[in-house]
Amino acid sequence: MASAILATAASTEKEENAIVFEDFPFVHNPAASVRILFEKEKTLIIFWEEKKMKNLLKLVYCFALVLNATMYASTLQLTASNLGNGQVAIGYEVTSGSDVPVGLGLNVTLTDGATFAGVASASSYFPIYPSTLMIDPSGNVTDWGAPISPPLMPGALGGIGTSGITLEMASQLSPQEVGINPHDARDINWDGYIDYVDMAILVDTWLEIDDSVAGDINGDGVVNMADLSGFVVSSGSQSPPLNLSQLLVLQIDLHEAANTTLLISPEATYRGGIVKGDGEIFSVTPISIVVPEPATLLLLGFGIFVLSRRK
Ligand SMILES: [Ca+2]
Ligand SMILES: [Ca+2]
User: Fold this and answer.
1) What pTM did the predictor assign?
2) How far is the CA of 62 from the centre of ligand 2 (A)?
3) Rounded to an integer, what distance in angstroms lies between the CA atom of residue 311 and that of residue 308?
4) How far apart are the two ends of the chain, measured CA to CA in Å?
5) Is 96 left (phi over 0), alpha (psi -120 to 50) or beta?
6) Cys bridge to 103: 57, 152, 225, 238, which one at CB 3.0-4.6 A?
7) Per DSSP, which regions of 240-306 are E strands?
8) Among the bound ligands, the one closest to the CA of 175
9) pLDDT, tens digit, for every residue of 156-171?
């Protein structure tokens, strides 16, 4: 990069702008009046230009990434609606893009002493509940389980009868033949097929944190929704829809409370939040809803608004 000159008598001006390497290894005869001079200004300019070019390229690259992400990113909004009689439907809407969620880990909580009494219904688009799915060694499902993660599972809230539940739901298994050469990481038992035998191994190690655990398909050291996403349907006729207003209907017991606030947020710490078919995570904002719907409060608010307009 730097150009060097050999000079027996450098000018004074040149000396001032030079970095002098007296002990440069190529100088075999220290007695000789030979110096290796690096032209400081030129060197700095070249260096600066190279750095500037690299920064410019980085900037262009980052801009392209952001542009790409903005143009093609899918966004998802959680939804909640009062169905009456203490029932709340939670769902989602893909608000831009065409990626659908294939696996969801959610925390749902209640305020004011209200508790969850149970699950009234759950969408058939998401029948895989990894914490409670039971499969025998031959790959036969013996118990489909329930979407509420038992409280003993890592990061799970208290469950039914408490004010907090952790939900896990994934779309249907997509069985396929993949062959053994090259090896597909989703074929955990190396028999050439992705099926319920592999799913059995995955759910058996669900939420385990270990560098060498069998179900860790993507190799990030934890078995969660990102690994499960590779097993389940993300396109085609059985694919989850872009909008689903009743992913799950929850029954709430208000006890003595007049109303309660239900909050839904992704459970990203252990379960990986809400994932797409490629294992990428949707960026999702938590939402809340008051149960039952405070119709009287809304009317009161409207009345105050009308009065203030008349002043
Ligand atoms: Ca297999
Ligand atoms: Ca993983």
Assistant:
1) 0.73
2) 27
3) 6
4) 77
5) beta
6) 225
7) 243-253, 260-266, 274-276, 287-291
8) 1
9) 999 999 999 999 999 9
